[in-house]
């Protein structure tokens, strides 16, 4: 892949995370502002970026449309949709569905907390594998080679005091997750948020994971863990409906 294509992809990833100005992006990618402006113009022309009224850039509508088309072709999302919403009606928490797609783990569906509290995650965005419940639930069921590939681009950033920042530390936790059958995010990305997650495993292997997320002061991990049996039943039903 050419350097220009790689850089364009990285710019798209950056503005997907949050809208940014030409100055911010030029500093982030260590480019002259005029060079970055030309890059953004090119992305605008193909519909992958758009300039907002405040001068910042965000994802273009064409790219959003392509992402939606891609998501609609995912069997896991299609099969799980009604089951996730049934689970949400019972528990009320934000429900996430993540899929293992080639060498990445991606959020493919989300049902927001009934209270209206919104989480940082976005459908179509990559999962932060080292500090998320769904990421760890999936990683725990991969062999070493697959795990190496998925984790290859991890930056091991320390978001909170609880974030795991080393591969050795993560491997220890993944071994425990594989044994117990579920994972947690104990305030590892945002210190006021926690979640529990369970894997979705078919006869062919791990395909994804689902999680329940809550504001820690509303429901702590012990409270969320009481929902694990219901979550595991939902994950098993999704796996059955996916078939072999």
Please provide a written account of the structure:
The chain is α+β, with helices and mostly antiparallel strands. The protein contains 10 helices and 7 strands. The chain has helices at 3-17, 22-29, 33-45, 61-72, 75-91, 133-139, 144-151, 167-180, 221-225, 228-242; strands at 49-51, 57-59, 94-101, 104-111, 183-186, 193-202, 205-215. It has a 5-stranded antiparallel β-sheet with strand order 4-3-7-6-5, sandwiched between helices. A hairpin with a 2-residue loop joins β6 and β7 (205-215). α2 (22-29) crosses α3 (33-45) and α5 packs antiparallel against α10. The protein starts with a helix and ends with a helix.
């Amino acid at each position: 892949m050419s350097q220009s294509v790689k850089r364009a992809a990285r710019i798209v990833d950056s503005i997907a995370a949050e809208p940014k100005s030409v100055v911010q992006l030029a500093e982030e990618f260590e480019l002259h502002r005029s060079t970055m402006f030309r890059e953004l113009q090119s992305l605008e022309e193909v519909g992958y970026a758009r300039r907002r009224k405040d001068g910042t850039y965000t994802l273009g509508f064409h790219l959003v449309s392509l992402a939606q088309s891609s998501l609609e072709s995912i069997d896991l999302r299609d099969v799980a949709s009604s089951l996730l919403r049934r689970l949400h009606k019972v528990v009320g928490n934000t429900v996430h569905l993540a899929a293992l797609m080639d060498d990445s783990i991606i959020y493919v569906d989300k049902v927001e907390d009934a209270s209206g509290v919104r989480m940082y995650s976005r459908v179509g965005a990559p999962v932060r594998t080292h500090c998320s419940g769904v990421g760890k639930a999936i990683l725990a069921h991969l062999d070493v080679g697959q795990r190496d590939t998925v984790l290859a681009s991890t930056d091991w950033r320390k978001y909170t005091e609880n974030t795991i920042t080393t591969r050795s530390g993560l491997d220890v936790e993944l071994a425990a997750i594989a044994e117990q059958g579920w994972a947690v995010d104990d305030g590892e990305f945002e210190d006021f948020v926690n979640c529990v997650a369970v894997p979705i495993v078919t006869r062919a292997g791990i395909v994804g994971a689902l999680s329940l997320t809550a504001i820690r002061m509303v429901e702590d991990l012990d409270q969320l863990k009481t929902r694990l049996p219901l979550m595991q039943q939902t994950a098993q039903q999704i796996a059955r409906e996916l078939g072999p």
